[in-house]
Design goal:
alpha/beta; 5-stranded mixed beta sheet; two-stranded antiparallel ribbon; 9 strands; single chain; Glutaredoxin; 10 helices
């Protein structure tokens, strides 16, 4: 058994595309049941006010001092990438919001064995259904669909200390191993893949991890020095901290 840790943000379109690429690779991996996927927290824009929202096109126009047409052109390119893996990304209809509480809720879901389902539900709600993920009752409804108790969701959101340290630890670890953009995948604490790389790259790394699983493991405290870059193609398919154009 080995795990894949994925640093990502719910408002990152490349994280959703990369998730689909990894899932396709795992579907063809004979030892799929021996792989555990763990989602780690990453904030693309921690300055976005909590509880407030703004349409993404307007927010990006202001942030990058670009025209509506320029922003929509960039979005169209990413939406086309999503369509290639079956995602109906409606980037021009997304509502920007602070994501720290979303990461806390993903830790709540993890305690109930529902992290993967919760991650998928939030991504679909944000990118395809144009839901406002800064609204408490919206989050209660969405996460109850995957099996979380409504009162547990409300209680977590009402208590700022709930899972605060877990999310903060993820963000700190991302900095310690120099993660500047997401999605960022760490396979078996040994190999790193940055961005929504092609499915073939994920297949190659999965096989390498399986072939080497009997080798000496790298301890978590050594990751900053020991994680290797896995073979991958040149790609700009990631969102950078504080500079994600989507």
């Amino acid at each position: 058994m080995f795990n894949i840790e994925i640093w990502s943000d719910v408002v990152c379109p490349f994280c959703y595309i990369g998730k689909r690429h990894l899932e396709a690779a795992l579907a063809d991996f004979p030892q799929r049941e021996q792989v555990e996927v763990v989602w780690r927290s990453f904030e693309l824009d921690s300055e976005t006010p909590k509880g407030e929202t703004q349409d993404t096109v307007t927010a990006l126009m202001q942030k990058y001092q670009q025209s509506r047409e320029q922003i929509q052109t960039m979005m169209a390119r990413v939406m086309a990438m999503g369509a290639e893996v079956g995602l109906d990304l409606k980037l021009d209809k997304t509502l920007r919001t602070n994501t720290f509480d979303l990461h806390r809720l993903l830790y709540l879901a993890a305690e109930h064995g529902l992290q993967g389902a919760a991650k998928e539900r939030l991504l679909r709600a944000y990118f395809t259904e144009s839901e406002h993920l800064g609204d408490v009752e919206t989050l209660v409804r969405l996460l109850s669909e995957v099996g979380l108790e409504p009162e547990a969701v409300r209680a977590t959101l009402a208590n700022p200390d709930a899972y605060f340290h877990e999310v903060s630890a993820d963000i700190y670890e991302a900095r310690s191993i120099a993660i500047s953009g997401v999605p960022f995948f760490v396979f078996d604490q040994k190999y790193a893949v940055s961005g929504a790389q092609p499915i073939s790259v994920f297949k190659q790394v999965l096989q390498r991890c399986w072939d080497e699983r009997g080798a000496e493991r790298v301890l978590p405290e050594q990751t900053a020095e020991a994680i290797e870059e896995a073979p991958q193609t040149e790609s700009d398919s990631s969102c950078q901290d504080e500079s994600c154009t989507i």
